[in-house]
Design goal:
Layout lengths: L12 H11 L13 E7 L4 H17 L3 E7 L2 H13 L6 E4 L2 H9 L12 H6 L2 H4 L3 E2 L2 E2 L2 E5 L2 E6 H6 L9 H14 L2 E4 L6 H14 L2 H10 L5 H15 L19 H6 L3 E7 L2 H8 L9 E4 L14 E3 L1 E6 L5 H11 L2 H11 L2 E2 L11 H12 L3 E3 L1 H4 L2 H15 L5 H14 L1
Parallel strand pairs: 1-2, 1-3, 8-9, 11-14
Antiparallel strand pairs: 3-12, 4-5, 6-12, 6-13, 7-9, 7-10
Helix pairs in contact: 2-15, 9-11, 9-18, 11-19, 18-19
């Protein structure tokens, strides 16, 4: 997702297991009678400036709160949801953890696993973060996470590779995108990078076709019913299959990871081996960590997902999400919510932007954004008639996993558009 910040390096299984064993169960039992509190904190920034940011931020919080100790655990993004669900279900959850929202959060709320922080959100946070943004984490009168960034999605591209291929603008329709792909192939580069090994990056093509094919009413209704009976869902699958038939993706895309190393989809863009990648606005930070000098890609650009003909979705609608952090239901409320308020202070949010090269949620901190591509993303996000959460988040973990894997099956020639709907409906029926 988070995919929010999806800066990633593969954690060794043994190390991950050891961290998991020591990283949980600080709630309650680690709170001493002397008033000292120890909390655990799980995030998904395993390398580079992102990992350093969280260590520095925790250290700064601890210096202001000498009776609080926070044990930080960085978990590979693709592993986080599964490990977190296991920890929550076992009653051994971290005190603070990355929250993606949507159906995944709904399940936590229903199970009583996550804290309602609505009465503990500070006035500074309320004034700096829009009510509409907080709405992404609200349910039944409660608020269950503090947002830290906004993550609109679109297509990131190399301006230099576009220019070398004779492309003078960015595509606004699928016909124009397909024409540009032909030019990029002729220039000798892979047009589109995708890390289908991780499933969800490939499924994002389906999400965006569904955003164009389905109306907002259908997206919202499906979130409640988990029934994919509208014809737009199959139409989106056919769009994916038709696009895949043009062979737009990098060689070996089915075994390519999304964010781990120079050979990942983000790495291919970072090293000018591929021209484009569809991804959320955490991607610039991932790409910059994978360039030869580990610096931002100088020619990086962005454009919205192209329009299609005949769809029910409104032009300009955008796929996106939030990254935020929740307190577990058993966390020490005062200290945990103080930490959540701390991380969205203006100076911390400015540092967050610099570390992750993405859009901070604090409106006052957004003034420091200088990159043209992030300004373009923010403008499209602000102008969008509506924003849909990523579908694997919106529809919950079980349905999301089924959706992601069935899309990859279509790309691998092992399934059809109808199979996407069938598999997803089966997952929904199982609950």
């Amino acid at each position: 997702m988070t995919r929010k910040n999806r800066v990633a390096a593969l954690i060794a299984i043994a190390a991950g297991t050891a961290l998991l064993a020591t990283g949980c169960s600080s709630s309650g039992s680690a709170n001493g009678s002397d008033g000292k509190v120890t909390m655990t904190f799980w995030h998904n920034s395993t390398t580079g400036p992102g990992k350093a940011y969280w260590l520095d931020t925790v250290k700064a919080f601890e210096s202001e709160h000498p009776d609080v100790t926070i044990k930080v655990q960085a978990i590979q993004n693709e592993d986080l949801d599964g490990k977190l669900q296991t920890a929550l279900n076992s009653g051994d959850a971290p005190d603070v953890f990355l929250q993606r929202g949507g159906g995944k959060m709904t399940a936590m709320v229903k199970a009583g696993q996550v804290m309602d922080i609505s009465g503990s959100i500070g006035s500074a946070a309320k004034s700096a973060i829009s009510a509409g943004t907080f709405a992404g984490y609200e349910q039944d009168g409660g608020t269950y996470a503090m947002p830290v960034d906004v993550l609109p999605e679109g297509i990131w591209y190399s301006q230099d590779l576009f220019k070398a291929a004779g492309i003078t603008g960015t595509p606004t329709t699928m016909d124009e995108l397909n024409a540009d792909i032909v030019k990029l192939k002729a220039s000798g580069v892979d047009p589109v990078a995708v890390g289908a090994k991780d499933a969800w990056p490939a499924a994002h093509w389906y999400y965006n076709f569904a955003l164009r094919q389905c109306s907002k009413a259908t997206l919202d209704k499906t979130a409640k019913t988990l029934q994919f009976d509208n014809a737009c869902w199959t139409a989106a699958g056919k769009d994916v299959a038709a696009f895949n038939a043009t062979k737009p993706f990098n060689d070996g895309f089915l075994t390519t990871s999304a964010q781990q190393g120079a050979g990942s989809s983000a790495g291919l863009v970072a090293n000018h081996k591929a021209a484009m990648e569809l991804m959320g606005s955490w991607d610039p930070g991932v790409i910059s960590s994978l360039t030869p000098d580990a610096k931002p890609l100088a020619d990086l650009g962005w454009f919205p997902f192209p329009a299609i003909s005949g769809g029910q979705g409104k032009p300009g609608a955008i796929m996106g999400g939030l990254d935020g952090f929740s307190c577990s239901a058993k966390a020490p409320k005062k200290q945990c919510t103080e930490f959540l308020n701390f991380i969205v202070q203006k100076d911390n949010q400015e540092a967050y932007y610099k570390a992750f090269d993405t859009i901070p949620v604090n409106k006052d901190a957004q003034s420091v954004i200088t990159e043209p591509y992030l300004k373009s993303v923010l403008a499209a996000y602000s102008d969008a008639p509506y924003v849909s959460q990523y579908l694997d988040t919106l529809y919950g973990q079980n349905v999301g996993n089924a959706l992601n894997t069935s899309v990859v099956d279509v790309l691998a020639g092992k399934g059809t558009a109808a199979d996407i709907v069938k598999t997803t409906d089966q997952a929904a029926a199982k609950g």
